Amino acid sequence: MKQGKPIITIAILVFAAAMAIYFGYYTLNSFHEPYQYAQVYSYTAYDSAMAEGLVVRQARVLPAQSGILEITRAEGEKVGTGQQIALIYRDSQAQASQFQIEELQMEIELLENAIQGGDVESAARLDEDVLQAVVALRSSYTQGDYSQLRDQVMHVKSSVLKRGYTYGEGLTSADLTSRLQALNSQLAVLTRQSARATTRVIAPEPGVFSGLVDGYESQLTPESVTQLTPSALQSLIDNPAGEDSTSLGKLITSDTWYFAANLPREAADRLKEGDRAVLRFSGELNRDVEMQVDRVGATEGEVTLVVFSCNRYLTLTTLLRHQTAELIFESWEGLRIPKEALRLVDFVQEAGDDSSAPPVTVTKTGVYAFVNGRSEFREVSVVHEGSDYYVVRPIGRKILRNGDYIITEGTGLQDGLLIAG
Fold first, then answer.
1. Which of 115, 372, 403, 404 is deepest in the core (most CB within 10 A)?
2. How far apart are CA 48 and CA 384, in angstroms?
3. pTM to 2 decimal places
4. By C-alpha distance, which of 321, 232, 331 is closest to 283?
């Protein structure tokens, strides 16, 4: 066994030397590779500028009241004058009574429907409704989304009760009628008791409800934003007021929302009041929004304040305040190629039908694509130039396509040249 160890050591050393020689040759050969390639891909280039600012809305803050608060409107939900926004319970007993009232009202409605009867087709629909209600509740629980949990629980109960009352075994019409009378009596008693312990908060005017009151409501309004300077806006961005715990929410009372932003001066100089502009928002809004340039305001140093407005997507902006958006002036779509791949190539063409006329030399702009081991010329037109790339569009009969490989470095290239065997 001891004599075998030197043999194993020598074999390992020989193998390592062979591998070193192989990789050395491969590396050296790569430096002398006569052709380099790049892949073409679809690309959109933008002439744009970044805009940092605050979203501004006309809002009415709703003051909080003492007691247990239950918001009955979803974020971004539209509310009419006099419609309920929230319930204020005097204590936990009052809150429990309200929940009982809602369950009784639901059960009474289902009983009334059940007394009217159903058919076999309705039974299948009710089974599907129960299943869908449970699936929706399960999905919200799995995702940690409890914003509609109460409504979803009520939907499950409603579906199960409706199925049971309509097609339950041993239930006669007299049984259902008796049950309905008993529930109506319970509801009347609970309603009288709850009226003294529950306060309804109603909308004083129409608007869009939001549960977020961040303190900017009194500092930023559609009127005051026109008086802002770049430094004043930056101060508001850097020093947020903080959420207001003394309110239960707010009503956004205007259909139009605004974006007051600081822009580089040279970008703001390209805008005129009344023009339309496209701003790309990220985050919760996450879309391109066409807005109107309401005001090109004061300039301080190299920064100008610009106010944009829009009357779309209001319900999606209720939670937005500090935003950074991309102001897009122009865009170019096409294929992106490295600058070194673009070539000017002379082609000799016959001069039409006149056989006596000399051939004509035509210079075309294009790239050499690598196709089946050969270089093939693909004509393109340049639509935009970047720092180290072009955005091009294919022209001619042989089309350059997304995903093609093109030659970026190589000598002696010509159409149809065999470059790989």
1. 404
2. 14
3. 0.69
4. 321
